[in-house]
Structure formats: C-alpha cells, structure tokens
Amino acid sequence: MDNFSTAQENYLKTIYHLQQTAETVSTNDLAAALGTAPASITDMLKKLSKKGLVSYKAYYGCHLTAPGTDKAIGIIRRHRLWEYFLSQKLGFSWEEVHEVAEELEHVSNEKLILKLDEFLGFPRTDPHGDPIPDAKGKMVQQQQISLASLPEKKAAVVTQIGNQSPEVLEMLDEKNIAIGTRIQVIKKYPFDESMEIKTDNRHQSHITRELSQNIFIKGSS
Amino acid sequence: MDNFSTAQENYLKTIYHLQQTAETVSTNDLAAALGTAPASITDMLKKLSKKGLVSYKAYYGCHLTAPGTDKAIGIIRRHRLWEYFLSQKLGFSWEEVHEVAEELEHVSNEKLILKLDEFLGFPRTDPHGDPIPDAKGKMVQQQQISLASLPEKKAAVVTQIGNQSPEVLEMLDEKNIAIGTRIQVIKKYPFDESMEIKTDNRHQSHITRELSQNIFIKGSS
DNA sequence: ATAATAATTTAGACAAATCTAAAAATAATT
DNA sequence: AATTATTTTTAGATTTGTCTAAATTATTAT
Questions:
Q1: Residues B67-126 pLDDT 10s
Q2: ipTM reported for the complex, 2 dp
Q3: Which residues of B118-132 are buried (b: 16+ CB within 10 A; e: fewer)?
Q4: What are the chain B neighbours of A7 within 8 Å (beta carbons)?
Q5: Of A41, A102, B33, B135, which is most buried, counting CB atoms within 10 Å of its CB?
Q6: Nearest nucleic acid nucleotide to A39, CA to C1' distance
Q7: Residue to substitute from A89, A107, A118, interface B, most B β-carbons within 10 A
C-alpha cells in the first residue's frame, strides 16, 4: 500500500508542481508536462484515484489528496537533497543536477534519505534556491521578490531562480549569478525594463526584464 | 543500444556472479538466484541473447559475452561504490548497505559514477572487502586465503568476507570482526576445526570452521 | 442558441516482464 | 537400452504503462 512505481511518483510530483499555479490540474497540462499522451494521463489518474492519492473527476481535472500531497513532498524532498549532494559534494554544476536527481529521487529507502540529510547538514534550499522539505514535510517558502522590483542603487542577495530551464541557467552562469550572489542595481531603463547590475564578484551585466523576473532576491542586510 | 532495464541489469549482474563458480549458468540456477520462475528466465535470455549480451543455447545454459561482461562489471562497480559511500559517508552498517545499493546501482549516469568515485577517493574495496572495478573495469582480486588456514600463534588482517548473508555479518559484528581487523590465532581445535582467536580490539572469540572459512585474510606484515 | 473548436475519454493494441501449466528435451537410474 | 526423473522450453495469460484513432463532452464564437 506504500509502494509506488517511478511513473506514479513522476505523476504525483508533476501534479504537485502544476498545482502551485492552478487549483486544479487538467489532463492536457499534465500530458504536456510529462511528455505523455493525454489518453495515458486519463488511465493513470484513474489508478491514482483508486489508490486515494488524487481526487479525479472525469473532464474536470484532478488535484492531490492529503496523502498524495505528502507523498509528492517526499519525492521533492529526495530530489532536492540529491541535487544538493550532487552540487556540493560531487561538484556538479547547477544545470546538471536536475537530470541526475530525476533518477536518484526514485530510490525510496527511508533511512537513506534521513542519513543523507544529516550528512549534508540539513540544508534548507537546493542549488536553485528551492526549499527542501524536512523529514516531516515542512518547508519554508520565502518571499518571492524578484530582481525586477529592486530599485536603483539598492543591493540584494539572490535566493532562488524561477524558470530553471537550461537556457536560463546558462545565461546566469555567463553573468556570474548564482544563489547567494550579491547584486546591486546600477541603472534601470524604463523603456524596456532592463537594468544594469553589478555583482559582488566585480562583474557588471545587462539584465533583460524577462531574466530579472526569474531572479528572486532577499534584502542584503 | 546502450540502455538497459533494471531487470536486465539484474540478470547480467547475477549471471556474472554465478559464472565465478561455473563456466556456464543454467536456467534453474539463475531462476533460484533471481527468485524468478524458470520460464521467465528463458524469455529474458532470448532477449539478452538477441542484444548480444549473453551467449545462449537452448537447454545448455548461458554465459556472458564480452560486451555483457563489461556491462556486468559496470553494474558491480556502481553497486560497490554506493556500498562504500553508504558505509563511509552515511554511517550505514555493513549488513544494511547491500539492500540500498541494489537500488542505487541502477542509476546509470556516467558522470555521477566518475564523480562519486573521485569523491570517495577511488576506493579499491567495498565494506565487505570485495574489489571495486575502476573506470576501465579493472579490479584487483587478492589472494583468497581463509582464516581456517592460518596457523596457531600467527596473525593476519581481515580483507574480505565470503558469504555475506545477514546471518554471517551478524555473527562477525558480535565478534567484533570487520574488514581491517587484525586477528591472531590463539588455539586451534583439531576435533571440530574450530579455533580461539584474539582481535586487535582486545576481544577474544571462538570461531567455528564454517565461519573461519568465510573470513579471508592477508599476512599482517 | 447553435455550430465549430478544443479537451478529454473510450476502445483497442502493444511491449516488457512476469506467471502457471503443459510439453519437450536432457540426464539419471535400473 | 528403456524408463523415470529432472530440467528447460513453449503456450497462453496477466499487469503496468504506454500508444493511436475514434467518440464524447465541454468550451468558444458566431
């Protein structure tokens, strides 16, 4: 009753993520996110529904039940702990960690994750700044203030990346921006809402609105 | 052409191990080792044979081809590196590592294993003393001298455990014997071929013939 | 409000890995 | 060498997760 296939875990995790922006998750959205045909989604939702992990009504999408949410958070916990491990201990770059963590997250030994968490020093965020749920499933979601809203002259520290696609991560690498980087706004251009910034490692860069909206920060007090 | 299912990897690994004691591996032996019905073994051997990983002739068993052997050694490498990681970094006991490594070994990212190997300091033996193949598949198999053949008064260091069943490992734990433990024979009893030994951690124990034959050693020069 | 469009589900099929029961081949025994 | 026993294979089914094509339901636009 507590054993799930890799496929099922991926469904739960993906439904959880899609639920962050919409109450209910549609069959097509899930299909797009998983790269699976909509008909297959319907089949799987019926199975997960029978198991009590999602609440599903035909033609009206689905959402996670309480047990389903717990399970999903557990998978996300594993994923992010492995990302942290790959980044901090094995020296992987932040573009690389996601793919490998996608595999490691399905290794489901309870003690392994507890010991790994301890070994890593109970980290609270992964290499992209996303919060890592603790053993009880609790995670601290910090304020989502984007770089776009930081006024001229002001400085702040990067805490999280919104869109974590390879394209975004590549740009951030080139501009020497990572989690923990201190950024100061030199000049904002109202015309296209782009900005000139300076990072703590003496780099100066031009940031478009699109990119600045995906860089989340906290005051550098 | 280079992607294998968990099931297929388990077949290759198990055939490799069974080949250590017999040239050719029979369907029934494989079935017993994998806990799978003989009919299923036949099916899978046909698939692996078509892929060129095993050489299989109906009614006459199978053995690994060169590519199959390479693949099997790769899986064993992953398994033993993870065992080392679990034991040395996460503090798992040697009875526990095998089961978890059985899952982790199927995560097949090349770079992950190279980096893990480096992170662990390129260990050459796992927690049970079994050799870990290097990135090229090479492994050093040491002399298999068992404690049973060590003469009275002589001392030696434990290098490997033969039968790694939970039963054996539990006994060794109780007698404070692990890889690296220095053992001195105090007295041998010809009647039942048991012996009295002393370990470097001041413990004295009685060892039966059965157990002594599963403790491999090297001279403590 | 009805027709066109989009989303979703059903129906039927497939591949992978397994099973049981029965048939066939090999090995052992008298 | 013939019979018995053992091992292995074949045949037919099952489960899981997937697919395509067709049917159905919901939504949007005229």
A1: 999 999 999 999 999 999 999 999 999 899 999 999 999 999 999 999 999 999 999 999
A2: 0.88
A3: eeeeebebbbbbbbb
A4: none
A5: A41
A6: C9
A7: A107
